[in-house]
C-alpha cells in the first residue's frame, strides 16, 4: 500500500523485474484499479497501423505498454 501512495504522474522510477530490468523512466500514468503504471520508453512494443487514407501506406509504430506496480521502485 505504501508504494501506491508514492507512485504519481511525473515521478522517476526504476524497473526491478522483467525485460527492461535496470532501466528507469518517468511515470506517464497510474491505474490504481488494475495496479499498473505506464512509464516513458519502458516496455515498448511494435504495433501495426493500417492506412487511414486512400494511397497511404501502413506502418509499424512503437508504443509503450503498462507494467505492474510491483515491478518498479521509486528512485
UniProtKB/TrEMBL annotation:
Q: Which SMART domains match?
A: KOW
One of its Pfam families is KOW
Any idea which GO molecular function terms this record carries?
rRNA binding; structural constituent of ribosome
Which SUPFAM superfamilies does the UniProt record give? Translation proteins SH3-like domain
Domain KOW as annotated: residue spans: 6-33
Any one cellular component term from GO for this entry? ribonucleoprotein complex
InterPro entries in the record: KOW, Rib_uL2_dom2, Ribosomal_uL24, Ribosomal_uL24_C, Ribosomal_uL24_KOW, Translation_prot_SH3-like_sf
Q: What top-level branch of life does the organism fall under? A: Bacteria
Query: Which GO annotations describe the biological process of this protein?
Result: translation
Keywords of this entry? Ribonucleoprotein, Ribosomal protein, RNA-binding, rRNA-binding
Please state which protein family the record places this protein in: Belongs to the universal ribosomal protein uL24 family.
Assembly description? Part of the 50S ribosomal subunit.
Role description: One of two assembly initiator proteins, it binds directly to the 5'-end of the 23S rRNA, where it nucleates assembly of the 50S subunit. One of the proteins that surrounds the polypeptide exit tunnel on the outside of the subunit.
Q: Which NCBIfam families match?
A: rplX_bact (TIGR01079)
Protein name (record)? Large ribosomal subunit protein uL24
Species assigned in the record: Candidatus Harrisonbacteria bacterium CG10_big_fil_rev_8_21_14_0_10_45_28
Encoding gene per record: rplX
Amino acid at each position: 500500500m505504501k508504494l501506491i501512495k508514492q507512485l504519481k504522474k511525473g515521478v522517476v522510477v526504476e524497473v526491478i523485474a522483467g525485460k527492461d530490468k535496470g532501466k528507469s523512466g518517468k511515470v506517464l500514468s497510474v491505474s490504481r484499479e488494475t495496479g499498473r503504471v505506464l512509464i516513458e520508453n519502458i516496455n515498448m512494443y511494435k504495433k501495426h497501423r493500417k492506412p487511414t487514407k486512400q494511397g497511404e501506406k501502413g506502418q509499424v509504430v512503437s508504443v509503450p505498454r503498462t507494467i505492474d506496480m510491483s515491478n518498479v521502485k521509486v528512485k
